[in-house]
């Protein structure tokens, strides 16, 4: 069954551009989930898979 | 759906039943700043802001918006709408939320928050989005940076897929295996 489009294509395009810049230039936050701490350095070119460390 | 710590289901010595949960769907969290993504989506969809619009983030770490005091991680002066999200400035996001108003609730719900995902998995939680009828003066600010809203990680992943697939909220299916 075809899903309804929730957001206008131009809105999605604008958001994609923002998200791309956020991932490559933006702020990587430290996130804490019970049992798993995900720590990321701030304000670096953020290819996060290279920067994230996971502590159990 | 990886959930850590996990167990070997064949190990009959395990007596901590909480390890049987898949926390991707059974636990909800106040997800914080990732929700700024959906605030931005709301503001753009409602034509309240364009990416290059300027927002005064007041060049300080302590902000007051709608009478509520809160902090942000770093001082920023004037930023574009896009930069407010990129730099994750709470003062800027709170100002955006004040203009979006109660429609922020509608958009969070539209993105699937507060709804079951439709995935048939035991113990799945629907989470919670504070309804405007119970908002305090602080609620819009809080919702803008991801508080007063609880969601599962699966709901978050599903909501982010809106950007990957051109505006659709997908129906989820569990695969037994890939060929």
What gap, in angstroms, lies between the N and C termini of chain A? 41 Å
Oligomer state of the chains in this structure? heterodimer
Q: Note the main sheet of chain A.
A: 3 strands, antiparallel
Class computed from helices, strands and strand pairing of chain A: alpha+beta
Approximate strand percentage of chain B: 5-15%
Mean pLDDT of chain B: 92
Overall domain count of chain B: 1
Remind me, CATH topology of chain B?
Beta-lactamase
Class derived from helix and strand content of chain B:
alpha+beta
What's the β-strand tally of chain A?
Answer: 3
Q: List SSEs of chain A in N-to-C order.
A: HEEE
Architecture (CATH level 2) name of chain B: 3-Layer(aba) Sandwich
* Largest binding interface between chains: A-B, 29 and 29 residues
The percentage helix of chain B is 25-40%
Task: Tell me the Rg of chain B in angstroms.
Answer: 19 Å
Radius of gyration of chain A: 16 Å
Trace the largest sheet of chain B across and list its strands: 1-4
Low-confidence segments of chain B, given as residue ranges, are: none
Shape of chain B: elongated
Beta content of chain A: 15-25%
Structure in words:
The complex is a heterodimer of chains A (56) and B (179). Chain A is an alpha+beta fold. Chain A contains one helix and three strands. Chain A has a domain at 28-56. Helix content of chain A is 30%, strand content 18%. A three-stranded antiparallel β-sheet of chain A has the order 1-2-3, with no helix packed on it. With 179 residues, chain B is an alpha+beta fold. Chain B has helices at 23-26, 36-45, 81-87, 90-100, 103-110, 139-144, 153-164; strands spanning 54-56, 62-65, 68-71, 78-80, 128-129, 149-150. Chain B has a two-stranded antiparallel ribbon. Chain B has a two-stranded antiparallel sheet with strand order 2-3. In chain B, strands 5-6 form a two-stranded antiparallel sheet. In chain B, helix 2 crosses helix 4 and helix 2 packs across helix 5. Chain A binds chain B through residues 1, 3-9, 11-12, 14-19, 21-22, 25-27, 29, 31, 33-36, 42, 56, and chain B through 4-5, 27, 29, 32-33, 37, 40-41, 44-45, 50-51, 73, 82, 85-88, 110-111, 162-163, 166-171.
């Amino acid at each position: 069954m075809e899903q309804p489009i929730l957001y206008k294509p131009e809105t999605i395009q604008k958001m994609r551009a923002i998200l791309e810049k956020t991932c490559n230039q933006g702020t990587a936050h430290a996130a804490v989930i019970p049992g798993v701490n995900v720590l990321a350095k701030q304000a670096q070119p953020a290819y996060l898979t290279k920067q994230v460390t996971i502590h159990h | 759906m990886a959930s850590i710590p996990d167990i070997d289901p064949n190990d009959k010595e395990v007596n901590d039943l909480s390890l049987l949960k898949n926390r991707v769907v059974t636990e909800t969290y106040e997800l914080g700043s990732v929700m700024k993504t959906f605030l931005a989506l709301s503001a753009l969809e409602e034509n309240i802001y364009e990416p290059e619009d300027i927002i005064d983030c007041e060049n300080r770490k302590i902000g007051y918006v709608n009478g509520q005091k809160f902090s942000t991680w770093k001082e920023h002066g004037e930023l574009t709408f896009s930069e407010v999200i990129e730099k994750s400035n709470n003062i800027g996001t709170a100002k955006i939320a004040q203009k979006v108003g109660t429609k922020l609730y509608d958009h969070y719900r539209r993105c699937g928050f507060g709804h079951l995902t439709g995935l048939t998995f035991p113990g799945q939680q629907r989470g919670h989005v504070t309804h405007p009828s119970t908002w305090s003066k602080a609620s819009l600010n809080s919702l803008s940076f991801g508080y007063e809203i609880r969601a599962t990680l699966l709901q978050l992943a599903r909501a982010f897929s809106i950007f990957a697939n051109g505006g659709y909220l997908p129906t989820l299916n569990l695969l037994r295996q890939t060929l």
